[in-house]
Amino acid sequence: MQIPAPFDYARATTVNDALALLERHPDSRVVAGGHSLLPMMKLRLARPEWLIDINDLYELDFILREGDYLRVGAMTRHTTLLESPEIARLFPIITDAERVIADPIVRNRGTIGGSLCQADPAEDLSTCCVVLRAEAVIRGPGGERTVSMSEFHRGPYETAVAQNEILVEVRFPILPRSGSAYEKVERRVGDWAVVAAGAAVSLAEDGTIDDVAIGLTAAGIDRTITEAEAVLHGKKPTEGLFIEAGRIAAAASDPIADQRGPVDYKRHLADELTRRVLRHACARALEVRHTTTQEG
Amino acid sequence: MQISMTVNGEDITREIEPRVLLVHFIRDVLRLTGTHWGCDTSNCGTCVVLMDGLPVKSCTVLAAMADGHAITTVEGLATGAKLDPVQQGFMEEHGLQCGFCTPGMMLTARALLDRNPHPDDGEIREAISGQMCRCTGYATIVRSVKWAAEHPAAQETTGEEVTA
Ligand SMILES: Cc1cc2nc3c(=O)[nH]c(=O)nc-3n(C[C@H](O)[C@H](O)[C@H](O)COP(=O)(O)OP(=O)(O)OC[C@H]3O[C@@H](n4cnc5c(N)ncnc54)[C@H](O)[C@@H]3O)c2cc1C
Ligand code: FES
Ligand code: FES
């Protein structure tokens, strides 16, 4: 029977209350969906003295459009993201990813905030946030600060969020004529990725690629793959370019052999999945471009 | 610490240690052993209960986190002698063999039908995709949920059949 070691429990009623509790108890940790933290506590990989439950912070459960940004609260559950029509329209990469993150029951509990703060190298939403050039809003005793995803990620299981801080929201910039896509290969439904790829593109008025970001999950690389992006910049999307980008992404990846597969297989997936998500993201960007032209 | 919640419509209050998981609270403290406990790692889904109407894996929720919420276990599906259509469906379509996965499967089915009264096979399979059945091969479970969708009015049965 797996049971966590003893701890004290407090339920926060507001973000400020949670911050005060974190400050008062130096060996404390917040629990959101608990679907990463509780398994780690059962295995004694985490042993906080205090758990601060932030599930009552409904103020952090929102998806709001504000100008050129979509703001997503840290307590937004996977299921809410999956079912949001606004997310599907603006950032289909997130909808693609949510379909294959864990299973529907885990998705009822797990949150975007917990996923990003867990910073598991095989975690899917981190890749989505990186390629969408999202920003993380962190609140602490001194107020709020906003960091880019590259500042947010400090390495496996490590983020810019300090012990006395809370991730409160993730902000996604909304770009015109843009499309995005995610694809993951998993051994069975609900499993973590063997490898997954995500891409986001935005097109210039003339249909050439204005901005592009490519990311890989579980492939030993947590930044966007600028080398592969460079071959696409300023060009009209073509199959030949996707193949070239896939080859470069695979070469840039640095996967490890484990029970999910050997290195060459994972490199092959990085190549093939990069092509697929680029193809898909560009097709979606073109669709958006056509519908906006028709509307306007 | 003291926690209070509604379990199958009944208000309960108990004194617990914060580290007690909801599945053990339900089975060992409340003695409602219909909720099963299997993998302990949120993979098998036999521990599924409804929390405010949504299926959750109770091996990965603290009892303390359920404080103030409404929990439904398999014991709460029937109303007196009246089986829930989902229970009746599992009987009609042989949705179980050993029965280990059944409580979780039925609760997920109930939550699905509450939101989507006429799911197709794909939607049913997706809904139960976080739960394992080592006996049936899932086909009869899908048929059982379909049966329940087609017979939304609960069936009258004798008390004997409910406890059997
Ligand atoms: C069976 C299973 C399969 C899974 N499969 C996948 C998968 O395929 N892909 C995938 O990406 N994920 C998967 N997950 C992980 C799942 O997405 C989790 O929900 C997620 O990693 C953690 O979210 P949570 O809300 O449960 O976080 P918690 O477990 O509550 O917290 C995780 C960590 O983040 C910290 N934290 C949480 N919220 C905040 C906040 N707002 N501010 C600061 N710190 C915070 C906690 O202190 C803790 O350290 C799976 C999980 C399970 C159990
Ligand atoms: S015991 Fe909870 S999912 Fe297996
Ligand atoms: S009936 Fe035996 S595990 Fe499903």
The molecules bound to the chains, other than polymers, are: flavin-adenine dinucleotide, FE2/S2 (inorganic) cluster
Could you name the CATH topology of the largest domain in chain B? Answer: Ubiquitin-like (UB roll)
- What is the CATH homology-level superfamily of the largest domain in chain B? Beta-grasp domain
**Mind telling me the CATH class of the largest domain in chain B?**
Alpha Beta
Strand count, sense and closure of the main sheet of chain B? 5 strands, mixed
Q: Can you count the beta strands of chain A?
A: 13
> Could you list the spans of chain B in which at least 5 consecutive residues all have pLDDT below 50?
none
Structural write-up:
The complex is a heterodimer of chains A (296) and B (164). In chain A, 38% of the residues lie in helices and 25% in strands. Chain A is α+β, with helices and mostly antiparallel strands and 296 residues long. Chain A has three domains: 8-53, 2-Layer Sandwich (Uridine Diphospho-n-acetylenolpyruvylglucosamine Reductase, domain 2); 58-173, Uridine Diphospho-n-acetylenolpyruvylglucosamine Reductase, domain 3; 178-295, CO dehydrogenase flavoprotein, C-terminal domain (Enolase-like, domain 1), CATH 3.30.390.50. In chain A, strand 12 (193-203) and strand 13 form a beta hairpin. In chain A, helix 11 (239-252) packs across helix 12 (263-295). By secondary structure, chain B is an alpha+beta fold. Chain B has six helices and seven strands. In chain B, the strands form two sheets. In chain B, strands 2-1-5-3-4 form a five-stranded mixed β-sheet, covered by helices on one side. Chain B has a two-stranded antiparallel sheet with strand order 6-7. In chain B, a hairpin with a 2-residue loop joins strand 3 (48-51) and strand 4 (54-57). In chain B, helix 2 packs across helix 5 (139-150) and helix 3 (102-115) packs across helix 5 (139-150). Chain A binds chain B through residues 1-9, 11, 31, 34-35, 38-39, 42, 51, 53, 55, 102-106, 108-109, 189-190, and chain B through 1, 17-21, 24, 40-43, 45, 48, 54-57, 60-62, 64-65, 67, 108, 126-127, 129-131. Flavin-adenine dinucleotide binds at residues 29-37, 74, 101-102, 106, 109-111, 113-115, 117-118, 123-125, 161, 166-167, 190, 192 of chain A.
